[in-house]
Design goal:
The protein is an alpha/beta fold. The protein is built from nine helices and nine strands. It has a single domain, classed as Rossmann fold. The longest helix has 18 residues. One of its GO terms (biological process) is methylation. Keywords: Methyltransferase, Transferase. GO terms for molecular function: S-adenosylmethionine-dependent methyltransferase activity.
């Protein structure tokens, strides 16, 4: 996959084609193994669920920005919510509609969302906004806040940088946590409710650096399943005692105020 001159739309149209062989390769960490991306998926779901404690989504409309192939549809609908997803990739949307014909998906061509103000009780985006340049990030966050109802929620799980804004990969434009928070809270339009720091693949990376283990996916399924479970516990619970500087992402839940900005 070409990494020079990153174009979000072109890049994600190509990534969508990988869903034929592995859903995770289309929407999770490109180049990581299936087992590693499965661990990432488990961690993200656990984190999201912990952030939604006390939030009643029954019968509420929920928007996902950057829905990809619909990875979050089962999670959101399990809360009794009505799911709506948007994405810039026609290929992603096509796969999502085939997988979840009862959900609503829309293709977008810009940072503008095709919905009226105050349309959704919860608007969320998971490791999507950081794949846009900083100007586009600000516009996307503005739109997420705009379409969220007063007293509704905005949830982001995005890459973080330490010390200042930083391009951490060819298509990942990370911000310090305070930068993400101030962007969403701008003008008093929202308030941070909860935050949780995230790290992936701690155990896996230790294995690769110290033991040179590369072919993890070639292990028997029972071994793979065990590694996923162990890696999940390591990643999810070890951050409680590690410095925040070891985190690579942050999950942030905001509540929208009724203030007009």
């Amino acid at each position: 996959m070409m990494h020079n001159e990153y174009s979000p739309k072109k890049y994600w149209e190509e990534r969508a084609k990988l869903a034929v062989k592995d859903i995770y390769q289309a929407v999770c960490a490109y180049g990581r193994s299936h087992i590693e991306n499965k661990a990432m998926d488990i961690i993200q779901k656990k984190v999201f669920a912990s952030m939604l404690k006390g939030v009643d989504l029954r019968g509420k409309k929920v928007l996902e920005l950057g829905c990809g192939v619909g990875r979050w549809v089962p999670f959101i609908t399990s809360y009794g919510a009505k799911y709506v997803g948007v994405d810039i990739s026609e290929n992603m949307i096509e796969v999502a509609r085939k997988r979840f014909p009862n959900a609503s998906f829309y293709k977008i061509d810009s940072t503008d969302l095709p919905f009226p103000d105050n349309s959704f009780y919860l608007s969320f985006s998971i490791t999507v906004i950081h794949h846009n340049n900083y100007d586009a990030q600000s516009k996307l966050i503005d739109e997420l806040v705009r379409v969220t109802q007063p007293n509704g929620y905005i949830f982001l799980l995005e890459g973080i940088a330490h010390g200042g804004r930083k391009k951490t990969w060819f298509n990942t434009f990370a911000r310090p946590v305070h930068d993400w928070v101030s962007e969403v809270e701008k003008g008093g339009r929202a308030k941070l409710v909860k935050i949780k720091y995230v790290r992936y693949w701690i155990l896996r990376d230790i294995f690769r650096k110290t033991l040179g283990i590369i072919g993890i996916d070639n292990y028997p399924k029972a071994v793979n399943d065990m590694l996923v479970k162990i890696d999940y516990y390591v990643d999810y619970y070890l951050l409680a005692i590690l410095p925040r500087k070891k985190a690579v992402a942050a999950a942030m839940l905001f509540k929208k105020t009724g203030k007009i900005t």
